[in-house]
Specification:
Strand order of the largest sheet: 7-6-10-1-13-14-4-15
Helix content: 40-55%
Number of helices: 26
CATH superfamily of the largest domain: Alkaline Phosphatase, subunit A
Radius of gyration: 30 Å
Shape: globular
CATH architecture of the largest domain: 3-Layer(aba) Sandwich
Structural class: alpha/beta
CATH topology of the largest domain: Alkaline Phosphatase, subunit A
Distance between the termini: 110 Å
CATH class of the largest domain: Alpha Beta
Number of domains: 2
Strand content: 5-15%
Bound molecules: (2R)-2,3-dihydroxypropyl phosphate, manganese (II) ion
Largest sheet: 8 strands, mixed
C-alpha cells in the first residue's frame, strides 16, 4: 500500500516534470541560461549605474531601451554554436561594463556622463596628481565590475555540467537569432513610440546627458554619443549655412528688441584706461563668504573686498565638462561652453571675440599666469587663441621648494608672490595691461591640511563644571570631513588673495588697476556633506533627526541654487565711492561678466550672449544642460519642472518663453563655436 502511494507520487511528479519541459518558455530558459544571464547581468549593471550616479532608482523606459540594446547586440551570439557563444557575449559584457565604470568615475568628478568627444581631453588627466585620480574611484563604482566575472563563473559551471553538450541537440541557432532580433525590435519600437519631440532634440544635441541616461540607459546614451561625436567631425563641413543664418537672425532680433547692451548707464567708461587683474579663484563659492568657524570668518579677505567694492551676490558659473577652462572661456567671450567636448580642447582653432583679443587691439599687454603645466586644458594653445600675448605657465615659476607645493602644484601664496614681480615687470614696460591669474591650491582633493595653516573647523566652547571651573571643550564638527577640509583650503586660498592685494599695493601696482575676482565653479561636494554640515547639533555633537524642526533639507534645488560663486570688482578707491561700493543682487551668470566689463572699460563687442548687468532689473542665466534661473524661477529641464523663488507668482507664458530662449541661446552659442562664425565677422571687417 505504502509502495503504491510512493509510486503514484513519483509518477505524478514525473508527469508534471515532463509537461513543464514541454512548455516552451521553461524550455527556452533551460536551454538559454548563458544568454539570459548575459541579458540580466548587463541590465542590472546599467540600473546600478543609474543608482550610484543620479540616485535614479527605477525607470521603466531606461530598462526597455537597455533591453533593446542588449538583446540586439547579444543576438549575434546565436550564430555560433552554444559552446562558442561566450566568445561574443564576453567581449560585449566587457565593453558594456567598461562603459558603466568609466561613466561612474566620470560622474563622480564632473557630475555628468562621459563622451567620446572628450577622449582627446583624457590626456590632461595624466597631468593630475595620482591622488586626485584615486580619490575619484569609490567603492560603489567597484561593484560595477561584476558582469564579466559572474558571466565567466556561469560559463564555467555550465561547462562542467555538460550543459553545452546537452543543449546542442535542441538549439536552432538561426531561429533563435531571428527571434531575439524580433524581440529587440519590439523593444526599440516601444522606445521610439514613447519618445516625445524633446527627446529627439535632446538625443541630437546631447546637452542634457543626465536626462539621456535616465531616459535611455547608459548603453543607448553611449552609442548615441559615439555616433554624435563622429558626426561632429563632419557637421562642421555641412550645415554651415543653416548655422550662420540662425546666428544672424538671433543677433538681428536682439538688436531690435534688446538694447540693454548698448544703453549708457552710471558705469559707462568708469574704468576706461585702467589696468585689469583678473583672479580666477579655483572652486571658490559664495557660500564660503557667509561662514565663520570659532568666530573667525572663513574668507575675511574676500569679504573685505566685497564690502569695499562691487559685489555681485547672485552670480553663477556656467561650466560644463570643461570646468576651469569653460569658466575662462565664458568669462572672456560671453559664449557658453561647447555642447560636445570642450572649447579649449576641441575648438581652439577658432577666432573668438575675447577680452584679451579686444584689449590687445586697444593697446593693452595681455598675459595669463597659472602654475600648472602649460598643456593642462590645452591652455598653451587656447590662451593664444583668446588673445593673450603671453602665458606664464609652470615652467616660468620657481617650483623648487617642496614646502611651496600644495595639491596640483605651486601654492597660491607663492604663486601670487612670484606673479607680483612678473606684473611689476609688465607694468614697467607697458602703459596698460590685462593679466589673468589662475589659482590652483583650492583644487580638490584638499588633503594638504598641514599646509593650510592653523584655521580650524571644529567647534570650541566653554562650560562651567560642577566645581565652578570654566573648562574649554571641543566638538569635532567639520574636522575630518571632506567639506571641512575644503573649508580649510578655502581659508588658505582667501589668505593668499589678501596677501596678493597687500603685495600689489606695496609695489604701487594698485593705483591704476581694477581687481576682478570670480569663483570658477562650485566645489562639487556631495549633498550628504552639506546635510551633515547644516544639521550638526552644536549642543550635543549629533545630527538633527529628519523629523526635527531644525532639520535642513538638501535637495536638488537648494543644492543647485547654492552653487553660486563670488564675483567682485574692486579698486583701492571703491570704498569711498558709493557707486563702486555696493551689492548687486540681480541674478547673473559668467556670460554677463564680459558685457558688464565692456561698458565699464569702454570696449566693443558683437557676439556676447550675456548682458551688461547694470542695465537689467531681471536676468536669465542659462546653464549648459538647459536649466535656467531668473530672479523668480529656477527651471529644471531634466524633470521639466520649476521652483518658484521668493514665493513669486510664476507666469506659465514666461516659463515657455524662457525655455525657448534658453534652447535658442545654447544653439546659437554652439553654432558660433562649431562653425567658427566669429571668424566670419572678422573677415567681413577686413
Ligand atoms: C588645472 C586647474 C583645474 O590647471 O585649472 O582645473 P579644473 O579641474 O577645475 O577644471
Ligand atoms: Mn576649476
Amino acid at each position: 500500500m505504502k509502495k503504491k502511494i510512493i509510486d503514484s507520487i513519483k509518477n505524478t511528479y514525473l508527469k508534471i516534470k515532463n509537461r513543464l519541459n514541454e512548455i516552451s518558455l521553461l524550455l527556452y530558459i533551460k536551454t538559454n541560461i548563458l544568454f539570459i544571464s548575459f541579458v540580466l547581468i548587463n541590465l542590472i549593471n546599467s540600473w546600478l549605474l543609474r543608482i550610484v550616479t543620479m540616485g535614479n532608482l527605477f525607470s521603466i523606459k531606461a530598462i526597455i531601451s537597455d533591453l533593446a540594446f542588449i538583446l540586439f547586440v547579444g543576438s549575434f551570439a546565436y550564430l555560433l554554436r552554444p559552446k562558442s557563444q561566450i566568445k561574443v557575449l564576453m567581449p560585449l559584457t566587457i565593453i558594456m561594463t567598461a562603459a558603466c565604470i568609466v561613466n561612474a568615475v566620470y560622474y563622480e568628478n564632473y557630475v555628468s556622463f562621459a563622451s567620446f568627444s572628450l577622449l582627446s581631453t583624457a590626456s590632461f588627466l595624466g597631468d593630475m596628481d595620482g591622488a586626485v585620480v584615486t580619490t575619484l574611484i569609490h567603492f560603489k563604482d567597484v561593484i560595477l565590475i561584476f558582469p564579466p566575472i559572474v558571466l565567466l563563473i556561469i560559463h564555467i559551471i555550465l561547462k562542467k555540467k555538460k550543459y553545452y553538450h546537452n543543449v546542442k541537440k535542441i538549439e536552432r541557432g538561426k531561429k533563435r537569432f531571428i527571434n531575439t532580433v524580433i524581440l529587440a525590435a519590439l523593444m526599440i519600437f516601444i522606445t521610439i513610440s514613447s519618445m516625445e519631440a524633446s527627446d529627439y532634440s535632446r538625443l541630437k544635441k546631447q546637452w542634457n546627458r543626465e536626462y539621456l541616461v535616465q531616459r535611455f540607459g547608459i548603453y543607448v546614451y553611449q552609442l548615441n554619443d559615439a555616433i554624435k561625436s563622429t558626426e561632429s567631425k563632419f557637421t562642421s563641413v555641412f550645415g554651415y549655412d543653416k548655422a550662420s543664418k540662425l546666428v544672424r537672425e538671433f543677433y538681428d532680433e536682439k538688436k531690435q528688441n534688446d538694447n540693454s547692451n548698448s544703453k549708457e548707464n552710471d558705469y559707462t567708461n568708469v574704468f576706461e584706461g585702467k589696468n585689469i587683474i583678473v583672479i580666477h579663484a579655483e572652486s571658490m563659492m559664495t557660500q564660503d563668504m557667509t561662514l565663520s568657524f570659532n568666530d573667525k570668518e572663513l574668507t575675511p579677505n574676500l569679504n573685505k573686498l566685497a564690502s569695499e567694492g562691487l559685489f555681485f551676490s547672485n552670480f553663477y558659473s556656467q561650466v560644463s565638462v570643461g570646468t576651469s577652462s569653460d569658466s575662462e572661456f565664458t568669462f572672456n567671450t560671453s559664449l557658453m561652453p561647447a555642447s560636445t567636448g570642450t572649447v579649449f580642447v576641441n575648438y581652439w582653432k577658432r577666432t573668438y571675440e575675447a577680452i584679451p583679443n579686444i584689449l590687445k587691439q586697444k593697446g593693452y599687454y595681455t598675459a595669463s599666469m597659472h602654475a600648472n603645466n602649460a598643456s593642462f586644458w590645452n591652455r598653451n594653445v587656447m590662451h593664444e587663441t583668446l588673445g593673450y600675448d603671453k602665458f606664464y605657465a609652470k615652467d616660468t615659476f620657481d617650483n623648487s621648494n617642496e614646502d611651496n607645493i600644495i595639491g596640483l602644484g605651486l601654492s597660491d601664496k607663492e604663486f601670487f608672490k612670484q606673479a607680483t614681480s612678473k606684473i611689476k615687470n609688465i607694468s614697467e614696460k607697458n602703459k596698460n595691461y590685462y593679466v589673468t591669474l589662475i589659482t590652483l591650491s583650492n583644487h580638490t582633493p584638499w588633503d594638504d591640511e598641514d599646509k593650510y595653516g592653523s584655521y580650524t573647523v571644529d567647534y570650541k566652547y566653554t562650560e562651567t563644571d560642577e566645581s565652578g571651573n570654566v573648562v574649554e571643550k571641543t566638538l569635532p564638527y567639520m574636522e575630518g570631513t571632506e567639506l571641512g577640509r575644503y573649508f580649510k583650503s578655502v581659508h588658505y586660498a582667501d589668505e593668499a588673495i589678501g596677501e596678493f592685494i597687500d603685495m600689489m599695493d606695496s609695489e604701487g601696482l594698485l593705483d591704476n588697476t581694477v581687481i576682478v575676482i570670480y569663483g570658477d565653479h562650485d566645489a562639487k561636494i556631495a549633498k550628504k556633506e552639506y546635510r551633515y554640515f547644516y544639521n550638526y547639533d552644536l549642543e550635543t555633537g549629533e545630527k538633527y533627526d529628519k523629523d526635527d524642526d531644525r532639520y535642513t533639507k538638501v535637495d536638488y534645488y537648494n543644492y543647485e541654487l547654492n552653487r553660486k560663486v563670488p564675483f567682485i570688482i574692486w579698486t583701492k578707491e571703491s570704498k569711498d565711492n558709493k557707486k563702486l561700493n555696493r551689492e548687486i543682487s540681480t541674478v547673473m551668470g559668467m556670460y554677463d561678466a564680459m558685457p558688464t566689463l565692456a561698458n565699464m572699460f569702454n570696449f566693443n563687442y558683437k557676439y556676447a550672449l550675456g548682458h551688461d548687468i547694470f542695465n537689467l532689473q531681471d536676468n536669465i542665466v542659462v546653464f549648459p544642460n538647459g536649466n535656467w534661473i531668473t530672479n523668480n524661477v529656477y527651471y529644471n529641464t531634466q524633470k521639466e519642472e520649476y521652483l518658484s523663488l521668493k514665493d513669486s507668482v510664476v507666469n506659465e507664458e514666461e516659463i515657455e518663453k524662457n525655455k525657448e530662449y534658453a534652447n535658442k541661446l545654447l544653439e546659437v552659442s554652439d553654432s558660433i563655436i562649431v562653425y567658427d562664425l566669429e571668424a566670419e565677422a572678422k573677415d567681413e571687417k577686413k
